[in-house]
């Protein structure tokens, strides 16, 4: 039997769907830390993160038969995480989550970029985290998926079910909003 860490997610899903149910634990091991980080940063709520992540895995397991193994499991599980995070924000009522998105109707060209790999000091990370809290969820989410989770534009488009051009627009606007929030936070500190 090959080492489980060398088996692609999609192949694991095929084996799970064929009856090897205990392999779902391997998927949990692969994605738990990533999804926890994503949910924590997107919802900005530490208290409910473990419950949300548990719900993501329950829904993932329950709906595994509907997963198309010719597609990316990574995008699929992040889509579930996105839905659960949005549901949490709606229930919490603290932030408005808009489903009418003008960026989708008026997409702009975008530049293909790679995620920045800069190492931040502890103080810089705190300032960044505080600033992320102050930008719109739709921009915060793409920044988290792109810079923290290192998803490609295509994966983000699949997760959010938006055109790839919109991903570029949101990343650009998110950077602008983050820059403004960072400047505001810097002067308020």
In short:
The chain is mainly alpha-helical. The protein has helices at 9-17, 24-43, 49-62, 73-92, 102-105, 122-133, 137-148, 153-160, 164-188.
The CATH class of the largest domain, by name, is Mainly Alpha
CATH topology of the largest domain: Rna Polymerase Sigma Factor, Chain: A
Radius of gyration: 17 Å
Helix segment tally? 9
CATH architecture of the largest domain: Orthogonal Bundle
Count of DSSP strands: 0
- The string of secondary-structure elements, in order, is HHHHHHHHH
Distance, first to last CA: 56 Å
Quick one: biggest sheet? none
Amount of helix: 55-70%
Low-confidence stretches: 96-119
Within CATH, the superfamily of the largest domain carries the name RNA polymerase sigma factor, region 2, helix turn helix motif
Strand residue content: under 5%
How confident is the prediction overall: mean pLDDT? 81
Which structural class should the secondary elements be placed in? mainly alpha
- Overall tally of structural domains: 2
Outline: globular
How would you characterize the overall build of this protein?
By secondary structure, this protein is mostly helical. The chain has two domains: 4-92, Orthogonal Bundle (Rna Polymerase Sigma Factor, Chain: A), CATH 1.10.1740.10; 102-188, Winged helix-like DNA-binding domain superfamily/Winged helix DNA-binding domain (Arc Repressor Mutant, subunit A, Orthogonal Bundle). The protein contains nine helices and no strands. The chain has helices at 9-17, 24-43, 49-62, 73-92, 102-105, 122-133, 137-148, 153-160, 164-188. Helix 2 (24-43) crosses helix 4 (73-92) and helix 2 crosses helix 7. Residues 96-119 have low confidence and may be disordered.
């Amino acid at each position: 039997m090959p080492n489980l860490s060398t088996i692609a997610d999609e192949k694991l899903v095929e084996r799970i769907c064929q009856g090897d149910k205990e392999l779902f634990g391997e998927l949990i091991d692969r994605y738990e830390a990533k999804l926890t980080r994503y949910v924590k940063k997107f919802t900005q709520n530490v208290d409910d993160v473990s419950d949300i992540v548990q719900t993501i895995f329950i829904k993932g397991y329950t709906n595994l038969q509907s997963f198309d193994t010719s597609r990316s499991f990574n995008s699929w599980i992040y889509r579930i995480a996105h839905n659960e995070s949005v549901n949490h924000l709606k229930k919490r009522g603290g932030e408005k989550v808009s489903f009418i998105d003008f960026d989708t109707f008026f997409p702009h060209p975008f530049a293909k970029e790679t995620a920045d790999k800069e190492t931040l000091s502890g103080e810089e990370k705190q300032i960044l985290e505080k600033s992320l809290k102050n930008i719109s969820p739709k921009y915060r989410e793409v920044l988290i998926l792109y810079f923290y989770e290192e998803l490609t534009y295509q994966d983000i488009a699949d997760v959010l079910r938006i055109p790839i051009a919109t991903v570029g627009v949101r990343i650009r606007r998110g950077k602008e909003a983050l820059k403004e929030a960072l400047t505001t936070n810097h002067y308020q500190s």
